[in-house]
Design goal:
The protein is of the alpha/beta class. It has 3 domains: about 325 residues, Aldolase class I (TIM Barrel, Alpha-Beta Barrel); about 140 residues, Rossmann fold; about 140 residues, FAD/NAD(P)-binding domain (3-Layer(bba) Sandwich). Helix content is about 30%, strand content about 20%. The chain has an 8-stranded parallel barrel, surrounded by 6 helices. It binds adenosine-5'-diphosphate (ADP) and iron/sulfur cluster.
């Protein structure tokens, strides 16, 4: 192969006693699987290794029952009984020649130990950081000695399980070692508290213990938060973080640096651009000669190569980019850059861990399904016979169905009613901060355009008559959904009869035409009973266009589900900064001339606010008219040559974009298998968990 500007990314890197085969480093990240789904965890990591990640890490691994994160599904190494599950993971990573890293963790006051019932441990007495009515107790010298022993034993077991790189972890405001480092958690007056030198003592001791235990054969990595974005109240990259790295400079074999807490480390695209951690991590290589890995949602090979050439990093760290495309390194190596499925920064992956279930990804429908359903991100079985498929609707579900059918060798016709591809993704990507979401459309379209077996048709609204006339063997209806405008949703299960339709503008109108969709002057009220991102974005859009906007929701906070994508606090802060008044725990109770009546969801107490136009963001209805029409003409299918008609995506049941992609993918995977066409809730075959 001729030299490539990306060759530098494929240089081996020495990490202590080991060599990483290249510079692609999958940093520790949660999967929502861990000790509860060990086979699934192992397959997921194996596919990362197969896709070219030179180092593949576990998620955080609880080292002791006093670090019990139940109900979260993290990895676990409480004792030797946990070895088989972790051996599976290490062996799976080694199958493809990658190094296996394990992130040992003790969660200190971050966890209430709900399952083990052990008392949480902390440098000083303090409530745990969840809402559990539990306090951590201050560790005495015997506890400190015990903790050092547990960590040492966990390191030895990790080596026994086959891991190559052992982490000492002080990040995300989640670990005991970081709690000792931070002034706000460590109020001790003994040699483990006070000046940094003392607060650093336990960290240094554990580092030395780990080196003594396994350092002859394993590499020792440190994961350190170098900033918390808290100013003086937290650790700062230009303050104590620098002093810590200077003090320990060459003691670990690798520095894995990031910003804390998790919501800062895994910022979504709505709130940050690729490379958002660079200002905080740039200094690290100046103070250590050991290799440095950092993250920042990197998907661009040019950026990656620049980071190495400029001496910012030695290894490109990735969690989300490796989830969206486990084969990202391999695609760079084999010069298939257009095929990279770039992370869109939506944080749906994060929601898996936060809701204690195996992760899913908007861009990569196979993540989390590698073992359970045997799905591989790059391989799909060819169809037994190349039949003709018609996919109707070019949104996320239709694009994914068409692409996967194409990859299976089908002849595919994709028809879209509008003059543009992408469905809701195209419209939503025009909202403030969501431009990266268009990657979902662009990557798939590029691939579809490469195949002579695919015909793509815009401005082609199909009716039942057209479908019968076309006579394709299989028909997937991916016609999406529309937002309701009648106020019905979670809070009000029936339409609100008092709404004045002349003063209601639905979300679809705003998505299609932007702020101009509201012609009437005067205050706009967004009523959010959807409770995820869209209502807040519409409020932002209107506020940025200079409209007076109020935000009303029956929920006690703005966009509560976005807690799972780590965005809730940022969303609420943004609306506050835009001077959008927030009416929380309020439902709609009446609509008068230029007024809206709200009622407190607890007390029923009423109040009136000014409202010229109401935008209800409550629920969606499937656009399934075409499906209904075809059902009514079922008797004509055979003569037309049609063998199956299925609904996929929002047309079946409106949901996350990730669910629509998954639905389109599942449909295309099942094609030709004789299986019942998979509805979104229908997994098609016996579930193996
Ligand atoms: P999903 O998320 O399920 O993919 P979207 O709403 O994003 O749903 O996309 C559905 C797409 O289907 C839209 O772009 C819409 O214009 C298109 N569509 C709806 N009805 C028809 C039809 N009868 N013929 C062709 N395309 C249609
Ligand atoms: Fe990226 Fe979204 Fe996939 Fe997470 S779910 S990896 S943020 S595309």
């Amino acid at each position: 192969m001729p030299p490539s500007p990306y060759d530098i990314l494929f240089e081996p890197v020495r990490i202590g006693p080991l060599m990483a085969p290249n510079r692609f480093y999958q940093v520790p990240h949660c999967t929502g699987m861990g000790h509860r789904y060990p086979q699934a965890e192992a397959r997921l990591r194996a596919i990362k290794a197969e896709g070219g990640w030179g180092v593949v890490s576990t998620q955080e691994t609880e080292i002791h029952p006093s670090s019990d994160l139940t109900p979260a599904n993290e990895a676990r190494l409480w004792d030797a009984r946990d070895l088989p599950a972790l051996r599976l993971v290490a062996e799976a990573i080694h199958e493809h020649g990658s190094l296996a890293a394990i992130q040992l963790a003790h969660n200190g006051l971050h966890t209430a130990n709900r399952h083990s019932r052990a008392l949480p441990l902390a440098p000083s007495p303090a409530p745990v950081d969840s809402n559990d009515p539990v306090q951590a107790r201050a560790m005495d010298k015997a506890d400190i000695a015990a903790f050092r022993r547990w960590h040492r034993e966990a390191a030895l077991r990790a080596r026994e399980a086959g891991f190559d790189i052992i982490y000492v972890y002080a990040g995300h405001d989640m670990t005991l070692l970081q709690h000792f480092l931070l002034r706000r958690h460590n109020h001790r007056s003994d040699e483990y508290g006070g000046p940094l030198e003392n607060r650093l003592r336990l960290f240094r001791e554990v580092l030395t213990d780990t080196r003594d235990a396994v350092g002859d054969s394993c590499a020792i990595a440190v994961r350190l938060a170098v900033d918390e974005l808290l100013g003086e109240a937290g650790i700062r990259h230009d303050g104590e973080a620098r002093e810590i790295i200077e003090a320990l400079a060459d003691e670990p074999d690798l520095w894995d640096v990031n910003i804390s807490d998790w919501a800062n480390d895994s910022q979504s695209a709505r709130f940050s651009q690729e490379g958002y951690q660079e200002p905080y991590t740039r200094f690290v290589k100046q103070v250590t000669s050991k290799p440095v890995v950092g993250v920042g949602r990197y998907t661009s090979p040019d950026t990656m190569a620049r980071l190495i050439r400029s001496g910012h990093l030695d290894l490109i760290g990735a969690a989300r980019p490796s989830i969206a495309d486990p084969f990202l390194p391999e695609k760079i190596r084999s010069d298939r850059l257009e095929e990279i499925r770039e992370c869109i920064g939506c944080n749906i992956c994060v929601s898996g861990d936060n809701t204690n279930v195996p992760m899913r990804c908007t861009q990569n429908p196979t993540i989390g399904e590698e073992w359970r359903r045997g799905w591989h991100p790059e391989r799909v079985a060819p169809l037994p016979a190349p039949e003709r498929h018609l996919v109707i609707g070019g949104g996320p579900a239709g694009l994914e169905a068409a692409l996967t059918l194409m990859r299976r060798g089908a002849e595919v016709t994709l028809a879209e009613a509008r003059g543009e591809w992408g469905g809701r993704v195209t419209r939503e990507s025009a909202l403030p901060g969501l431009a990266a979401w268009a990657r979902l459309r662009d990557g798939r379209l590029w691939q579809l355009r490469q195949s002579a077996r695919v015909s793509l048709h815009l401005e082609s609204p199909l009716a039942a008559e057209d479908v019968l006339e076309l006579g394709h063997t299989h028909v997937a209806i991916a016609t999406g959904a529309r937002w309701r405008v009648d106020g019905a949703g979670r809070r009000h299960r029936l339409p609100l009869a008092f709404l004045d339709p002349a003063r209601v503008v639905g979300p679809d109108a705003l998505l299609a035409r932007g702020a101009e969709a509201i012609a009437a002057p005067g205050p706009v009220v967004i009523y959010d009973d959807d409770r995820f991102y869209l209502a807040s974005l519409l409020a932002e859009l209107l506020a940025l266009a200079g409209r007076e906007v109020a935000f009303v929701t029956p929920a006690p906070v703005v966009a509560p589900w976005s807690e799972h994508t780590l965005e809730q606090a940022r969303i609420q802060k943004r609306l506050i900064k835009l001077d959008v008044p927030l009416y929380l725990s309020r439902e709609l109770a009446g609509m008068g001339a230029a007024r809206l009546t709200l009622a407190c969801t607890y007390s029923g107490r009423r109040e009136e606010i000014a409202c010229a136009t109401l935008v209800p963001v409550t629920a969606r209805l499937p656009e399934d008219g075409l499906w209904q029409a075809l059902q009514a003409r079922r008797g004509e299918w055979e003569e037309a040559g049609i063998r199956s008609v299925s609904r996929v995506g929002d047309c079946l049941a409106p949901g996350l974009i990730a669910a629509a992609v998954q639905s389109g993918h599942a449909y295309a995977r099942a094609a030709g298998s004789g299986e019942k066409p998979p509805l979104r809730e229908d997994y098609g075959h016996v579930q193996r968990i």
